[in-house]
């Protein structure tokens, strides 16, 4: 019998386990993959998430393994439109940390090794779940296809966008695919861009460029459709044409096409099961908020689970979790959509209007824009903010 079973050891499941490591709760994490996913996904860790890592004494090791992005330089077709600098944001961390998701997962997983109340089972897949009045029974299949049953007081589904648990419990996941598609590639960096991110808002379409640790850089362009096998040098040609940067002699390390979508669970919990991260919401990665929103879910879920297991209060903490975290995800989904729409405007007229607005915003809202992009203005976006409002419930 466990206090908690966490399904999925992606960044959110691992963060949740770390946040509960000091609770003495008996926790089992089940992950179907042998090792963390090597595919390029999230890179941006925002200041609220860095604060969480500070609580876990992990922020220094993350910063040592990442790149501090202090400025985002926004280019139009012919000139620089302005710069977003994070120097003035109200946070101890005045930057976005760029660090590949695989390193995030490895660092979080390594830290769990210190705690003997937490067990991580890799290459085991949850295939069934039954909820009763006194607990949840979870069917777990091993690599020999043998299913065993484990019981816990609560379960947290951190099993990603294609969540099995959401399907088994028939929780509606509402949303749609956007028509936009993109191609991203990581290169050895031969530019002189240093640690700055660069956005190119041109008449022909956008180019995004972010520094990565170990002298690498990520480039993203839009594509006319999902390009499973992109034509040779498709991304390089678009970058040269729109941003004037020649990548043909740079070493390409990886390349991935991706589509974008927005979905959200109508329910964030079902009886004794709570959803965190992409199993509860998916948003456009343009804007870099999906994993960070999931980290904030994990912080709230950790507080709720501690309260429920200690049974110190009869208040429905799951309902509070749904109220605040669903609102935060809806806000992040809208903002991610807006960033994507602004960036992908094309044609002489729309592009000129967009670029005029960008110049205006970056000049007259110099302090607000970086707060917005560092996710410091999501209403009740962190558990600390909710706690201040509901002090008696979480003391
Ligand atoms: C191209 C791209 C770029 C992105 N950039 C950013 C960014 O810069 N910043 C940001 O914040 N977000 C970004 N995101 C989003 C981010 O990658 C996701 O939000 C994040 O991976 C969600 O983490 P998760 O743990 O909820 O889900 P996942 O990462 O999907 O992890 C779920 C885990 O559960 C396991 N699992 C699933 N089903 C089972 C089962 N039945 N039994 C056992 N294990 C199971 C899976 O194997 C997986 O390891 C990006 C996404 C993409 C695609």
Tell me what the structure shows.
This protein has 395 residues and is of the alpha+beta class. It has one domain: FAD/NAD(P)-binding domain (3-Layer(bba) Sandwich), CATH 3.50.50. The protein has 12 helices and 19 strands. It has helices at 11-19, 47-55, 59-65, 101-112, 164-168, 234-243, 290-310, 317-344, 348-364, 368-373, 383-389, 391-394, and strands spanning 2-7, 27-31, 44-45, 67-69, 71-75, 80-85, 96-98, 118-122, 125-132, 135-141, 147-157, 173-188, 197-202, 205-212, 216-223, 252-265, 269-270, 273-275, 281-282. The strands form 3 sheets. Strands 1, 2, 8, 9, 10, 11, 17 and 18 form an 8-stranded mixed β-sheet that branches. Helix 7 packs antiparallel against helix 8. The longest helix is centred in the C-terminal third of the chain and has 28 residues, at 317-344. The radius of gyration is 21 Å and the shape is globular. It starts with a strand and ends with a helix. The model has no long low-confidence stretch (mean pLDDT 95). Bound molecules: flavin-adenine dinucleotide. Residues 7-13, 30-33, 41-44, 101, 125-126, 158-161, 164, 184, 258, 277-278, 285, 288-292, 294 line the site of flavin-adenine dinucleotide. Flavin-adenine dinucleotide binds at residues 7-13, 30-33, 41-44, 101, 125-126, 158-161, 164, 184, 258, 277-278, 285, 288-292, 294.
């Amino acid at each position: 019998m466990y206090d908690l079973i966490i399904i999925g050891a992606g960044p959110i499941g691992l963060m949740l386990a770390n946040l509960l490591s000091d609770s003495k709760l008996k926790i089992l994490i089940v992950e179907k993959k042998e090792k963390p996913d090597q595919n390029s996904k999230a890179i941006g860790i925002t200041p609220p998430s860095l604060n969480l890592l500070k609580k876990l004494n992990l922020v220094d090791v993350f910063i040592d393994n990442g790149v501090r992005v202090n400025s985002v330089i926004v280019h139009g077709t012919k000139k620089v439109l302005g710069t977003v600098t994070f120097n003035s944001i109200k946070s101890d961390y005045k930057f976005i940390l760029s660090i590949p998701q695989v390193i995030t997962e490895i660092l979080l997983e390594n830290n769990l090794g210190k705690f003997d109340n937490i067990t991580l089972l890799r290459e085991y897949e949850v295939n069934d779940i039954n909820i009763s009045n006194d607990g949840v029974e979870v069917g777990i299949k091993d690599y020999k296809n043998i299913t065993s049953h484990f019981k816990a007081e609560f379960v947290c589904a951190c099993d990603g966008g294609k969540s099995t648990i959401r399907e088994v419990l028939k929780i509606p996941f509402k949303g749609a695919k956007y028509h936009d598609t993109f191609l991203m590639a990581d290169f050895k960096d031969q530019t002189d861009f240093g640690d700055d991110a660069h956005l190119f808002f041109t008449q022909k379409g956008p180019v995004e460029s972010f520094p990565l640790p170990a002298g690498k850089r990520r480039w993203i362009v839009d594509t006319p459709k999902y390009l499973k096998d992109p034509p040779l040098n498709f991304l390089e040609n678009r970058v040269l044409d729109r941003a004037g940067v020649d990548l043909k002699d740079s070493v390409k390390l990886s390349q991935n096409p991706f589509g974008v979508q927005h979905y959200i669970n109508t329910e964030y919990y079902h009886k004794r099961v709570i959803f965190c991260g992409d199993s509860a919401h998916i948003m456009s990665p343009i804007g870099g908020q999906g994993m960070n929103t999931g980290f904030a879910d994990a912080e709230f879920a950790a507080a709720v689970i501690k309260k429920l297991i200690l049974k110190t209060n009869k208040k429905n903490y799951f309902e509070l979790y749904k109220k605040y975290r669903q609102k935060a995800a809806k806000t992040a989904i809208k903002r991610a959509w807006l960033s994507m729409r602004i960036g992908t405007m094309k044609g002489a007229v729309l592009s000129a209007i967009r670029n005029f607005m960008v110049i205006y915003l970056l000049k007259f809202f110099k302090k607000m824009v970086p707060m917005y992009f560092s996710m410091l203005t999501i209403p009740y976006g962190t558990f600390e903010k909710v706690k201040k409002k509901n002090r008696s419930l979480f003391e």
